[in-house]
């Protein structure tokens, strides 16, 4: 069966290339009506798909969000893939209207227009936060006429030279921070509500901020177009050919000092590599570009292979399903689109044994197919949203071409109309077969504060997070007793976690509450209790018992949180952690990222241990050498150099010399420089 399928695909691909050589477009490049396009969809058994909104109500959509009033807003990006002239952006944000409540959009109205490269929105305080590089904006409708009449620049200075790598993916987190993908791009970002705060250099990271606390900082990644969180607030990111990665350790920990051997924390967790089951042939330009690149690789003697189809190349919109409408086994799955493969992929997340990360696997029913695939090559599933009703909404950009012209050879793009389809766009809704499609009428914006507290127990995470956000925005402290009662109920698990952060958002945390989280039977509460204990002067004393927690993520968080303190006993505790966890790269990074790792007592204790020679010796040596230099500890002398040489002994000679010389350039310890130079001169390396 698989052989015949592969033969059929090769035949179709070759036929497409032959046709394209005569006519660049080819018959499969014609646009289809929404009904015709849907007829090409193949969705797994047990689900059905219907059109929620189509052109002309929506065109060029890249994101859909529902606000607390139940109103649907869509971001339109008609200028892609070109950068508009200043002041001439055609981007829009529309409100979608279901006038008769049948679950189908009847009309749309323009909330805001003339926006240059708007990519993402997030409801906030009766307005919308919008990413539109180089800015993050706050738009409001002050006179309640349905049209934006107030535009505030919150942040400015983000990278803006490639629409596929700009600030996007606004996501409200369980921890009350708002996260955004930045693709690791450079930029000097300033906060316009408080210009006295230092500018933030964005190179290498993503972004997060809190408007309620006037805070902003870098976050680990980087993500391109897609980020999502599970119920523990662990972050998963999407980046083109890497459809799902786990950002294992947040940026704030890996950048506590500048001496880590590596700060790369984005971990590819897929157990099925990059293969996907695509049912559309590769377009002519992609097949030809791939063939040319492959020739170059072979000419250069590179052991590298590039694929034009059947492998992830255009992943976007990774979304955690936390709704209540799908069967229970779908809760916690991650849905990711591939806009080049015209399909929707589903991953099951499973904790990886004793490691603090995960494995993303295909579902048994999708070992040899995708959750949804289309034979319409214009189908571009760019983003997903779980709605108030618990259904999964699909944002279909619907274009003939979806690629930056910067990456296509000049001769191939001469006849390509990158704007073909700019007047089209579709939003679909996926729901279990037989379920009703009528609109969910729950409107949280009108709920009382106590009703919002009760909503923290709702089975749909959209409802829980929206209620938590509204509690943060209202700052109605009269509900604190109700939140404390909810938090005290040990049987509720997830609702307790939301109650904890609702209390945090109201500045109502106490040491007693944090201790309550640490003593919980529910592991995610213990994990977040450790994070919050970092705020306590004696927090390190509370963390030690959790260094051996049976839950690997709790134990890792204990190491990370303990590293926020630099008291002398902490150095001893972390050296014991090294001995216990040295075989796991994430625990090694957590230990070495700590302030205590710079202490001479830690350095001597760890290097005296037999464990120093097993795993992570090079990482340890790098931090040790730089820390010793920084702290002017020439007494380590020959002993230290010997250990450094041992740690590097498995590498090639030239690489070892390079590492040592790199350290020497950063070293102001004359005695240590003398030792190292003597070793270099003697050829000991």
Question: How is this fold's topology laid out?
Answer:
Layout: H1 2-22, H2 34-38, E1 41-43, E2 47-54, E3 61-66, E4 72-76, E5 91-97, E6 107-115, E7 118-124, E8 127-132, E9 135-140, E10 150-156, E11 168-172, E12 178-181, E13 188-191, E14 200-201, E15 206-210, E16 215-219, E17 227-229, E18 235-239, E19 242-247, H3 251-254, E20 266-268, H4 284-299, E21 315-320, E22 334-338, E23 343-351, E24 358-361, E25 372-374, E26 381-386, E27 392-396, H5 410-413, E28 426-432, H6 449-455, H7 461-474, H8 480-487, H9 494-505, H10 511-518, H11 523-533, H12 539-543, H13 552-562, H14 568-581, H15 585-592, H16 600-608, H17 617-630, H18 637-647, H19 653-666, H20 670-681
Antiparallel strand pairs: 1-25, 2-28, 3-4, 4-5, 5-6, 7-8, 8-9, 9-10, 10-13, 11-12, 12-15, 13-14, 15-16, 17-18, 18-19, 19-20, 21-22, 22-23, 23-24, 23-25, 26-27, 27-28
What attributes characterize this protein structure?
alpha+beta; Neuraminidase; six-stranded antiparallel beta sheet; 20 helices; 30% helix; 685 residues; globular
Give an account of the 3D structure.
The chain is α+β, with helices and mostly antiparallel strands and 685 residues long. Among the domains are: 31-276 and 311-432, 6 Propeller (Neuraminidase); 616-685, no CATH class. The chain is built from 20 helices and 28 strands. A hairpin with a 5-residue loop joins strand 26 (381-386) and strand 27 (392-396). Helix 8 runs antiparallel to helix 9. The protein is globular and about 70 Å long. The termini are far apart. Mean pLDDT is 88; it is low at 1-28.
């Amino acid at each position: 069966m698989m052989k015949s399928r592969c033969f059929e695909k090769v035949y179709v691909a070759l036929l497409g290339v032959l046709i394209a050589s005569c006519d660049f477009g080819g018959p499969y490049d014609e646009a289809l009506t929404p009904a015709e396009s849907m007829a090409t969809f193949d969705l797994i058994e047990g689900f059905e798909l219907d059109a929620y909104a189509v052109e002309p109500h929506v065109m060029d959509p890249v994101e859909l969000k529902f606000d607390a009033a139940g109103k649907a807003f869509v971001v339109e990006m008609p200028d892609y893939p070109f950068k508009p002239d200043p002041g001439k952006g055609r981007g829009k944000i529309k409100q979608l209207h279901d006038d008769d409540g049948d679950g189908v959009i009847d009309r749309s109205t323009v909330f805001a227009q003339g926006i240059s490269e708007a990519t993402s929105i997030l409801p906030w305080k009766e307005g919308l936060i919008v990413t539109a590089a180089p800015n993050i904006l706050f738009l409001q409708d002050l006179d309640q006429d349905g049209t934006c009449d107030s535009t505030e620049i919150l942040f400015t200075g983000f990278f803006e030279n490639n629409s596929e790598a700009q600030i996007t993916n606004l996501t409200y987190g369980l921890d009350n921070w708002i996260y955004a993908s930045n693709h690791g791009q450079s930029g000097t970002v300033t906060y316009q509500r408080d210009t006295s705060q230092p500018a933030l250099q964005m190179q290498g990271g993503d972004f997060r901020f809190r408007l309620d606390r006037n805070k902003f900082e870098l976050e680990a990644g980087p993500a391109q177009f897609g980020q999502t969180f599970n119920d523990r607030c662990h972050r998963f990111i999407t980046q083109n050919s890497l459809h799902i990665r786990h950002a294992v350790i947040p940026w704030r920990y890996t950048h506590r000092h500048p001496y880590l051997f590596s700060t790369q924390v984005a971990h590819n967790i897929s157990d099925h590599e990059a293969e996907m089951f695509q049912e559309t042939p590769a377009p002519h330009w992609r097949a030809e570009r791939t063939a040319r690149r492959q020739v170059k690789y072979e000419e250069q003697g590179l052991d590298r292979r590039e694929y034009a189809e059947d492998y992830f190349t255009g992943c976007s919109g990774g979304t955690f399903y936390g709704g209540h409408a799908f069967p229970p086994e779908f809760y916690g799955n991650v849905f990711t689109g591939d806009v080049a493969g015209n399909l929707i992929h589903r991953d099951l997340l499973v904790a990886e044994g004793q490691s603090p990360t995960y494995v993303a696997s295909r579902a048994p029913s999708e070992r040899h197919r995708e959750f949804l695939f289309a034979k319409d090559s214009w189908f571009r599933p760019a983003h997903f949203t779980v709605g108030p009703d618990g259904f999964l909404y699909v944002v279909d950009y619907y274009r003939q071409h979806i690629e930056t012209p910067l990456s296509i050879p000049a001769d191939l793009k001469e006849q390509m109309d990158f704007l073909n389809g700019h007047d089209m766009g579709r939003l679909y809704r996926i729901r279990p077969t037989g379920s009703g499609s009528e609109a969910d009428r729950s409107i949280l914006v009108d709920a009382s504060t106590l009703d919002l507290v009760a909503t923290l127990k709702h089975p749909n995470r959209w409802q829980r997070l929206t209620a938590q956000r509204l509690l943060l925005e209202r700052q109605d402290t009269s509900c604190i007793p109700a939140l404390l009662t909810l938090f005290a109920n040990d049987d509720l698990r997830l609702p307790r976690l939301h109650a904890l952060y609702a209390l945090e958002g109201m500045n109502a945390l106490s040491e007693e509450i944090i201790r309550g989280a640490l003593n919980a039977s529910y592991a995610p509460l213990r994990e977040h209790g450790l994070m919050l204990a970092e705020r306590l002067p004696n927090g390190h004393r509370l963390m030690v018992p959790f260094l051996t927690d049976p839950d690997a993520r709790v134990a890792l968080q204990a190491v990370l949180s303990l590293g926020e303190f630099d008291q002398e006993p902490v150095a001893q505790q972390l050296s014991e952690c090294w001995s216990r966890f040295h075989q796991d790269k994430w625990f090694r990074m957590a230990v070495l990222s700590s302030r205590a790792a710079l202490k001479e007592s830690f350095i001597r204790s760890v290097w005296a241990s037999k464990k120093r020679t097993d795993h992570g010796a090079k990482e340890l040596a790098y931090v040790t050498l730089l820390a010793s230099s920084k702290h002017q500890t020439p007494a380590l002398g020959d002993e230290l150099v010997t250990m450094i040489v041992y740690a590097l002994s498995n590498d090639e000679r030239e690489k070892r010399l390079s590492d040592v010389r790199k350290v020497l350039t950063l070293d102001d310890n004359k005695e240590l420089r003398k030792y190292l130079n003597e070793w270099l001169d003697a050829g000991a390396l």
